[in-house]
Q: What sequence folds into this?
């Protein structure tokens, strides 16, 4: 599996929307080589490091195909990626093709898939739709994150080549279905809770649903404070 990185994107923290919430979601393409460290790309920033960035979210990947789907549904997104705060834009990989634990060579670096994105309310401000985060979550067009296995220089035009696939059954799409579609499926939740490659924050959702028989409240994350 090899795809081309069409765009490598970074952004500074800036006020977002009428609330002036600080965010680094406005990513712009870079035509220069950038160093990828365990905390992300040189020149990239996040507004709230409690929920964005860090070693398990060093890079965000959002498929270029999803922009076509949003436009087909009536959302006038621009032709240049970056709207969803992604660092990598490609064609040829979606949530159905990528599994947790997949290892890729990216330019001179090596990265591994850690988890899907959980949409938050800043997408509502970004796109001017009160329900945009909920729509992204419901659509399954969420994108995913990488941690950095080996730092190195990366650039637009580099190949993203899959090197290892230790957990092929655990696609990002499957995890999305467990969290947001099947909700309380005991077999899937038990398997998810035992998936050691998955960050513990995600496994905790499965453990808590199994313990309580309830789904966590998404209101604050999706609709804002």
A:
């Amino acid at each position: 599996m090899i795809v081309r990185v069409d765009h490598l994107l970074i952004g500074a923290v800036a006020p977002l929307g009428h609330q002036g919430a600080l965010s680094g979601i406005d990513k712009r393409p870079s035509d220069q080589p950038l160093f990828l460290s365990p905390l992300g790309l040189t020149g990239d920033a996040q507004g709230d490091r409690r929920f964005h960035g860090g070693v398990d979210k060093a890079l965000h990947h959002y498929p270029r195909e999803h922009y076509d789907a949003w436009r087909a549904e009536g959302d006038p997104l621009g032709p240049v990626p970056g709207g969803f705060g992604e660092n990598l834009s490609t064609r040829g990989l979606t949530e159905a093709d990528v599994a947790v634990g997949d290892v890729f060579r990216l330019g001179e670096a090596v990265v591994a898939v850690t988890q899907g994105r959980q949409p938050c309310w800043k997408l509502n401000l970004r796109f001017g739709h009160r329900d945009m985060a909920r729509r992204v979550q419901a659509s399954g067009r969420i994108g995913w994150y990488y941690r950095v296995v080996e730092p190195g220089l990366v650039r637009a035009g580099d190949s993203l080549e899959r090197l290892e696939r230790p957990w092929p059954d655990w696609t990002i799409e499957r995890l999305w279905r467990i969290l947001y579609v099947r909700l309380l499926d005991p077999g899937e939740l038990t398997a998810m809770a035992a998936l050691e490659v998955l960050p513990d924050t995600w496994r905790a959702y499965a453990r808590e649903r199994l313990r309580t028989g309830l789904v966590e409240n998404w209101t604050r994350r999706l609709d804002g404070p």
About this structure: The chain has two domains: 2-169, 183-215.
